[in-house]
Amino acid sequence: MNYFELYPGDYLRDTTRLSMLEHGAYLRMLIAYFGEEQPLPADNDELFNVCGAKSSADKAAAIKIAERFFPIGDDGLRHNKRADEEIEKARRRIATAQQNGSKGGRKPKPKENPPDNPLGSNPDSPNGTNPPTHSGEALHAPHATFTNNVVASVEVTGGAIQTARANSEDIGLQARIALCNELAELGITGATAMNASLVTLMVTHGVSADEVLATAREGLKRGIERFNWVTSTLFGRLADAQRQAHQAALGERIARATPSKTLGAIQKLEEIKREMAENGSTDWPAKAALSAA
Known about the structure:
Blueprint: H1 8-14, H2 20-36, H3 44-51, H4 56-69, H5 81-102, E1 143-147, E2 150-155, E3 161-163, H6 171-186, H7 196-204, H8 209-221, H9 227-256, H10 261-279, H11 284-292
Antiparallel strand pairs: 1-2, 2-3
């Protein structure tokens, strides 16, 4: 799902004692939980991939948050009760929307208010006013991509692509649909063409379908069938590659830098010490002063 509700009051009430690093770990885990609509893995290494924990401090924060907010359930996975409740609410809303859609959708609004209801208020409401709308109604509602007014795809809960009438120009979407079909055949669960993580990996970072499939097969060898492990692992490898590239670039800049006068003087003194040690000379101060002059 590409959207979930965050209640600031509830969140701050439960997290007042967390450090900034722990807040980051908690939010990364929540995003992964809602994004894949699946509980988190119990294995620490997989959990570190999910929340991007690299340093020892990152990993300590991840373990603390996981133990406190995502306890391991009977199924061997880490659950968050509130997240499970919100996901279930979203699924019920989607089911209702689908039922209404099969009946022809909502009735169209009249162009003009009827004479007996000039203000256009809702007669079914107790006080005659229109019922409030909630942003949560859009929570994981079917998402559609439009290209030249043609529906390219519709994603629904459960990871099924209900329609795939993609415009011929939208090659990226077609490739992701084909990729998700291959992942499903392999036994990977939770992969959808409009998954936010998959779109970011392939569109923004240029990750190929072959790389996604290879990573999925790595997970299957370890008994991991969840798509969120695949995307988290790929994001982790991208971060590692960027870090290595940065370190390599920094090393090149250092190597190209012109030695300072101080560094040159130190190197010269070290050479003098080595020469005197080889020759058995003990007149170090005089020799050093002579060289400096």
